[in-house]
Every structure is written in structure tokens, then in C-alpha cells.
């Protein structure tokens, strides 16, 4: 384990947040000799709207090959839905 597990990284700039998340988030499967999917979600706070996004690049090199994972996108949508539900509940 690299310094322990964490649930959140708070950073001033988008790319600064990628450093700790990707450093500890990527997992290499030695048996398959391949990188496993990263499950990070980028959440921008302080905006009047809810903004979540996947915590990786566009993956153009993987496009059309059937090797991409939708996990990070599903997680980003899930967090946006949870935030929207929490916001709706506080509007009372």
C-alpha cells in the first residue's frame, strides 16, 4: 500500500488532482501484462452547477478497439446523481 487509502484529494487546479489519484489509482496486472481501469472521478466544487467528469484522458488510442472501460464514466454519473439528490433534498 502506498501511504494508505484515501477517499478524496482537494486541489486548487484540475491537473494537480490527477497526480495523487493516478499515482495510487492505476493498477498493473502483471499476469495479464496490462493496466487495469482507473475509477477516479473529478468533481469541481464552488460552481453554481454540478460538474463531474471521468478522471482520465480521452482514450483516443483505445477508441473502436473494444478494450475501454466505462467504469469511470458510470462513477462520474453516479456522483452527479447523488449530488443532485442531495441538492434537491436541501431545497425544501
What report would you give on this structure?
- The protein is α+β, with helices and mostly antiparallel strands.
- The protein has one domain.
- Helix content is 35%, strand content 13%.
- The chain has 2 helices and 4 strands, in the order αββββα.
- The protein is globular.
- It starts with 13 loop residues before the first helix and ends with a helix.
- The mean pLDDT is 79.
Describe the structure in brief:
By secondary structure, the chain is an alpha+beta fold. The chain is 35% helix and 13% strand.
Task: Tell me what portion of residues adopts beta-strand conformation.
Answer: 5-15%
Number of strands: 4
Helix content: 25-40%
What's the structural domain tally? Answer: 1
Output the number of helix runs: 2
What sequence of helices (H) and strands (E) makes up the elements? Answer: HEEEEH
Q: Which radius of gyration do the C-alpha atoms yield?
A: 15 Å
What would the principal axes of the Cα set say about the shape?
globular
Highlighted features:
single chain; 92 residues; alpha+beta; two-stranded antiparallel sheet
Write the layout of secondary structure elements.
Layout (H helix, E strand, L loop, with lengths): L13 H12 L2 E2 L4 E2 L5 E4 L6 E4 L16 H20 L2
Antiparallel strand pairs: 1-2, 3-4
Amino acid at each position: 500500500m502506498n501511504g494508505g487509502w484515501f477517499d478524496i484529494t482537494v486541489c486548487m487546479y484540475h491537473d494537480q488532482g490527477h497526480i495523487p489519484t493516478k499515482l495510487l489509482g492505476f493498477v498493473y496486472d502483471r499476469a495479464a501484462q496490462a493496466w487495469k481501469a482507473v475509477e477516479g472521478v473529478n468533481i469541481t466544487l464552488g460552481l453554481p452547477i454540478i460538474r463531474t467528469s471521468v478522471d482520465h484522458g480521452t482514450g483516443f488510442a483505445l477508441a473502436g478497439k473494444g478494450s475501454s472501460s466505462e467504469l469511470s464514466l458510470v462513477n462520474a454519473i453516479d456522483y452527479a446523481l447523488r449530488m443532485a439528490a442531495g441538492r434537491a433534498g436541501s431545497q425544501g
